[in-house]
Automatic annotation (TrEMBL):
<dbReference type="GO" id="GO:0005525">
    <property type="term" value="F:GTP binding"/>
</dbReference>
<dbReference type="InterPro" id="IPR027417">
    <property type="entry name" value="P-loop_NTPase"/>
</dbReference>
<feature type="domain" description="G">
    <location>
        <begin position="10"/>
        <end position="79"/>
    </location>
</feature>
<protein>
    <recommendedName>
        <fullName>G domain-containing protein</fullName>
    </recommendedName>
</protein>
<dbReference type="InterPro" id="IPR006073">
    <property type="entry name" value="GTP-bd"/>
</dbReference>
<dbReference type="Pfam" id="PF01926">
    <property type="entry name" value="MMR_HSR1"/>
</dbReference>
Length: 305
């Protein structure tokens, strides 16, 4: 049975442990998917059906949970490929994302490490000129964590203000911010916010680039972000190897040399793994856009490592 063009499909994205599975469990009535603090909630793109009250009627929706880009068992390139495959399949079946919930722990520093990287890649997935912003709801979670501590609530509210400033480019174009308090009512409200913008045009950038523009994955903007991250990691590891080589040349202590050599082997193994992961994105350097879009030809740019 082919999917309906009017099907409501909402992607639930965000870092591992931000509450994606919890929202889906509350909406679907399941208790089997919520992840622990030690493992990612999901290691693949999952589709879950749920019946949600919208206004005076019950609507069937499809919730799509994506792995966090900080999944400990998968590279960013691998997760991006999973998202690309799913989006491409959906688009070829004439369906588009109704909207996106992007979850962010209020306990996370807005610019620290993984959350910042996740948001940067998320923005590339969505795009900034295709009208998708109105379909995005940024959801802050984990408000109850350590709230009994003096000043904690005030600190979280300050963090939310900082996040609003960080998200301002998308908020200005219509994206929304909401808080999630771990109740079904709050989860339903999030869905209603997305559905209220259902008539607004625009699709996720990755869908547009993969299907409508027929770009290979490595030429999408999201892939460019992943590629730049791999380049930084490679440069960092190569610099470490040079430092270790210099340190071994400066010492005459056999024990120290042995320790440095062991560390060099470890770093070199990590570097080789990063390079191999990066090769997964190098799949279409010769690909170019064909005629069709506004009568123009556009060259794609591959991801280099």
């Amino acid at each position: 049975m082919s999917p309906s063009k009017n099907e409501i499909i909402i992607a639930v994205m965000g870092p591992t442990g931000s509450g994606k599975s919890q929202i889906i469990d509350l909406l679907s009535g399941s208790t089997k998917w919520a992840g622990s603090n030690l493992k990612p909630e999901t290691d693949q793109v999952r589709e879950i059906k749920a019946i949600v009250p919208v206004g005076k009627e019950a609507r069937e929706i499809t919730l799509v949970e994506t792995p966090g880009f900080d999944d400990i068992d998968k590279s960013d390139a691998g997760i991006l490929q999973m998202l690309a495959d799913w989006m491409a399949t959906r688009s070829r079946n004439s369906t588009k994302l109704t909207g996106i919930l992007y979850l962010h722990r209020i306990t996370d520093n807005r610019q620290a490490g993984t959350p910042h990287r996740n948001l940067r890649l998320f923005k590339k997935l969505c795009g900034d000129e295709l009208g998708v912003e109105r379909k995005v709801v940024f959801v802050t979670t984990m408000w109850d964590k350590n709230q009994g501590e003096p000043g904690r609530l005030m600190a979280y509210q300050k963090r939310q203000d900082e996040l609003r400033e960080y998200w301002r480019p998308m908020l200005t174009l219509g994206a929304q911010v909401a808080e999630f308090n771990k109740t079904r009512e709050a989860a339903v409200e999030l869905i209603c916010r997305v559905i209220s913008q259902h008539s607004v045009g625009g699709v996720a950038r990755l869908q547009e680039e993969l299907v409508d523009l027929n770009l290979p994955l490595d030429e999408t903007r999201a892939a460019q972000v992943v590629g730049s991250q791999y380049q930084s990691l490679i440069a960092e590891h190569r610099g470490t190897l040079l430092d270790l080589d210099r340190a071994m040349q400066r010492t005459n202590d056999p024990s120290m040399v042995a320790d440095l050599h062991a560390e060099r082997e470890r770093v070199e193994a990590e570097l080789n793994k990063i390079v191999e992961q990066g090769k997964a994105m190098r799949i279409g350097f010769f690909s170019k856009l064909k005629n069709g879009l506004f009568g123009k030809k556009t060259k794609g740019r591959g991801v280099e490592f």
